[in-house]
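Running log. JK asked me to keep both predictions on one page so they can be read side by side. First protein, sequence followed by its tokens:
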Amino acid sequence: MNNFGNKTLAILYSQAKREYFPTEEQYISEAEVFERAKIVAVYFEKVGFEVILLPGDSSLPKKLQKVRPQLVLNLVDSVRGQEHLAAIIPAQLDLFNIPYTGTGMLGLAINSNKFLTKKLLEQTGVPLPRYQLFSSLLDILDVQLKFPLISKLNEIHGSVAIDQDSVSDNELHLRERLKKLFRIYRQPVLVEEFIVGKELTAYLLEGMSKKIYIGEKKFNEAATKYKIATFDAVWRDIDSYDYVRSSGNGILENYVRTAFDILKMDDYGKFDVRQDESGRYYFIDCNANPAFGPIETDCAISHVLKMYDINFDEIIRRLILNASKDEPNLMMT
């Protein structure tokens, strides 16, 4: 890898304060990024970057103008606790003409609305479970939806509010679940058919080309009735599932490329997919700028790519290579 001496990299992270979030869960999903950013910084320093960490808050514009980094690693997932405001960050970087890694303003804006994401995927033929957006308890359940159904927050990622109670076997349970989510989070709820079968995670990583890496989640035997990546499984009980290398036989890979493009993602993206007993795929979640970090931060991207003999140094190399397509001076020693 080139030596990037005398070049400054700014790592931007979410400024998470407990008062920004309605629940401890959502706060946990955002607050960890600062410690992760410090670990990631060491990897960039090893290749010669001078690294500075900056919070993604109202002070950012002045700090960017003062530092004028040659490259920004954007790890901001929310601003003042709102995921849809994360799109402000790449907008500022574009305004100041500062190159950065990850998805731009439009892609992050799309990413903050799961219903909009599904509509775009639907238009391009990417397979989805049947779904419905609930904006109030008065909404009538679509008769085409078949139980079991899983309910998810429309505007929050990170498996927040996902637990075994998220899956409903009847409408009475679903209504109670919706009532709770509306009361706490005050946002629409996406309800979709729960697909029994395997759960796959696919990463698309750009470099000179778009490469796709797939891992199947293998849940431990203690997993309860519905094997899903709950909040506790993702953030607390790291032994609840592991990854094994998998393949989409070219079919899933093509869907992932289509999804990546239509959702206006850049550099890297994560796609969660269920596969039923007949082998059919269903996209259940898409993440622009998913959690980014080396294996010691327990980020899924490093666990999945490790199965393909790709370490974090190589991931960084590809990100810089992709950024250098428009900024060739980055690759100068």
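And the second, directly underneath as requested:
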Amino acid sequence: MKKTKYFASRRETPWDSTLRDNVQEFIRNEYLDDYYEKHPALSESNEANLLNAFVPVCCPNCGSLKFTRKGFTSNGIQRYCCKDCGKRFNILTGTLLDNHKISISEWIEFCLNLFRHDSFSSTSANNKNSTTTTAYWTKKLFLLLEDYTEGIVLTGNVYIDETYYNEAASNRTVRNGKELRGISKNKYCIAMGFDGEKVYAFLEGMAKPTRERTRDAFKNHIARGSHLIHDREKSHKVLVEELELSEERYNAREIEKLPDKKNPLAPINRQCFMLKDFLNAHPGFNRKDLQGYLNIFCFMQNPPHDKLKKVEMLLRAIVYSQKTLKYRDAWK
């Protein structure tokens, strides 16, 4: 029988159930004061004022537009009652924050830490919560942003390239006792695009790109008639042909040693570097979630660039998106 892994509460200290001297009492009290400041009771936070400023669009249970106010929850959040189905709900019913136990202020800190490329362990330590909580919230962002890149269309001068990310060590292909080297089936191929303002990233598959995969990755994300700036990857030719693009092509080997100021592909190289830095902050992640991380990365890199405005966008999207993810379903 598989043993359940136990994660100690961030609230615990070594002196919770023992006699304490003055030094231990001081350290414990300071630690717990900081903990409770980061974990206020929902009834003691300003969440009610925030959430009561939102008005439901419809009943989340049946979609009816006929509903009326019906008191408040124990945390002061406005409750509604549907006139058609008779069910009660509040602004968070059926959303990713439905029945949340941790304050929204802590969720905001989680987002800001993620935008800074902090690791799960660092983020959970800063927020004084479990690493599984951080992973769970990340999966919620995957769901919220699952369609984010679909609306990205690059225009004007468009830089494109491919970058590669290693398969997890436990899943790598081995032949004759050795792992495949180079751009092989042990590397994920990620299509990257950048027009000076917007970033687009898409998981093409494994190993080198093909004409078909390149077409599928970019055909709806580069405006017809744009100017393509790229290396001499053969699969890019299909984009020039089908989207009627003008182009600049550079030999990657000839320019790779140039300083960034002189490298004509520096803008897209920079985005590839930032993506690797973001992914490497979470090296043990399940590669099935790779596109989810790419969606988050694009959201991070694209306008608006102020991190607090990004948090605002996410919060508004959560309130008005009928998406939910139960904890037990996140690990299936």
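Observation for JK regarding the second prediction: Residues 162 and 194 are 12 Å apart (CA to CA).
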